[in-house]
Amino acid sequence: MAEAVIAGIGMHPFGRFPEKSIGELGRVAVLQALEEAGFEWEEIPILYAGAMQAGSGWGHAVAAELGQTGIPIVNVEAACASAIVGLHEAYKAVSSGTYDVVCVVGVEQQKKGFIPTLNLPVWQRVMGLGIYPAYYAMMAQRHMHEYGTTAHQLAAVSVKSHKNASLCPNAHYRQFGGITAEDVLKSRMICDPLTLYQIAPVSDGAAAAIVTTAKLARQRGSALPIRIHAVTLYSGHYDPLALTAPAGIEKTTAEKAYEEAGMGPEDLDVVECQDATTIAEIHTIEALGLCREGEGGPLTESGSTAIGGKIPVNTDGGYLSRGNATGATGLAGLAEIIWQLRGQAGPRQMEGAKVGLNETLGAGPTCSVTIVSR
Amino acid sequence: MADVKKQEKVSLPVAEGLYVFPPSVESPALLGSKCEDCGFVVWPKQSICPKCRSSHAGEVVLSRRGRVWSSTIVRQGPGDYRGPVPYAVGLVELPEGAGVRTVFTKCSVDSPLPIGTEVQLVFEEVTRDSDGTALVGHRFAPIGEKPLGGEDAEGESNG
Questions:
Q1: Which of A60, A68, A206, A252 could form a disulfide with A107 if both were Cys (CB 3.0 to 4.6 A apart)?
Q2: Which fold has domain A4-112+202-220?
Q3: pLDDT value at position B4?
Q4: Confidence at residue B121, expressed as pLDDT on a 0 to 100 scale
Q5: Is A80 a catalytic residue?
Q6: Which of A80, A103, A191, A291 is catalytic?
Q7: CA A332, CA A339: separation in Å to the nearest integer?
Q8: Which residues from chain A sit within 8 angstroms of residue B14, using beta carbons?
Q9: A124 close to B (CB below 8 A)
Q10: Strand pairing of B134-142 and B11-13?
């Protein structure tokens, strides 16, 4: 098996860009990733392209911007995990020797309002049950009921997120770095107990990665190649009481990744995880084993997951304030991990970060955990 | 709204296969499936058991009472929804083990129904189709509580 590395990463900043096409957003990200990796577009033999709401042919739209070279273009949809499913395919293709280099891109452009719940049956949507934040709110109600998690602990996730994003040039919300827990709790209630500042924005944007072999990356003089130890995908089992996804889906996915990588949560220096809402981060850091079940609230409140803390989480602001360009979002999280491992995260930098984990969960569900190191 | 039976001629279920109506049952109910091999009960019904993958499943009329697994108040309605805002939603756990996503009715929209609250099934008009036919669907109402205010609350719509 060839050793697969990420030799280049690129992003179009997340935000509102209604005037741009998805092809243009993707082109910016891909060119940046290619340049870092030391490859030309003409050399890329296959493109995996993630998007959720682009209708059809989004990868083709990106390739048209870069030049139609005739390569296979595989369009992937897995909601917020779309681009990461592309990364999974790239990792498998390079590890197995099927391709020695693969380009992955994720793109998205969204309408204002809630992210559409197109995976749910029509009857649920017309009845008013097609609203993702409601299921996160119910998750929060359960977490508060079972573990005594407080509204202030939920707000602490949002405060940290906005502070981190204020230091991140690619973030959707850079202007709210000074918000307090009180501001978060006083913002408009959307679905009790989740207020407006506890729910990720809908963002436009793109992210791209070049996956290749360690050998080829050295030959090309790529930016510090990041070694891939695991990219796991898991879709869960039937759970009659599933809210956002079957219970335990993140935990199982993480366990598979830790096993594949031969590592555990104690080996991690920096983590990105799905924080479509504040409760999602609290729930997920528990599932990843960063603390015991039920202790995600206190861990966040203690500052351990802040930049400079024991185990920083979502140093770029995560979904909550870097933004959630659904089709690209999982790869944007991985981009932050890579910048941290290369020492390129600027004011967000965690000194000496060597191993990072990126988790994402998309509607469907698809959960993914990627573990990488420098 | 009380009685679907009276409205038989002017109303339709919001989707096929979710419910069973008189005369085959005394009052409208959720129609699930029960695995003949492992006994697992699901709603909506499935032809293959999601637990043991047996294809021997029979239909089962589900309990009309259950408990709130979790709930919230939606204060900004989603795009496909045309009803009043705010409204109460949740997941109800039935004694058979099945979970039912639902809107709650005849309850306050000031704060969510507490986890564990006992609720019972009712059928109400959910929306109307393009020719004005009422589409009827399931909702749950708390048991032993008087209807509370909140219906007059100013809602907002979401684009």
A1: A206
A2: Peroxisomal Thiolase; Chain A, domain 1 (3.40.47)
A3: 53
A4: 98
A5: yes
A6: A80
A7: 11
A8: 123, 126-127
A9: yes
A10: parallel
Rg of chain A over Cα atoms, rounded to whole angstroms, equals 19
Set of chain A residues whose Cβ sits within 8 Å of the Cβ of B155: none
How confident is the model over A33-89, as pLDDT tens digits? 999 999 999 999 999 999 999 999 999 999 999 999 999 999 999 999 999 999 999
Residue with the two structure tokens 């009043």: B84
Nearest to A243 among B77, B91, B158 (CB): B91
Of A158, A167, A206, A175, nearest in space to A325 by CA:
A206
Domain ranges of chain A: 4-112+202-220
Report chain A residues whose CB lies below 8 A from the CB of B153: none
Beta bridge partners of B30: B19
SS3 A156: helix
Q: For residue A252, how many C-alpha atoms fall within 13 Å in the half-sphere facing its CB?
A: 13
The three state secondary structure string of A239-272 is CCCCCCCCCCHHHHHHHHHHHHHCCCHHHCCEEE
- How many residue pairs bridge chain A and chain B with CB atoms within 8 Å of each other? 115
Residue A371, pLDDT > 80, answer yes
A352 touches chain B (CB under 8 A): no
pLDDT digits (tens, 9 = 90+) for A242-284: 999 999 999 999 999 999 999 999 999 999 999 999 999 999 9
* Rounded alpha-carbon distances, angstroms, from residue A1 to A6, A190, A233, A369, A370: 16, 49, 20, 21, 18
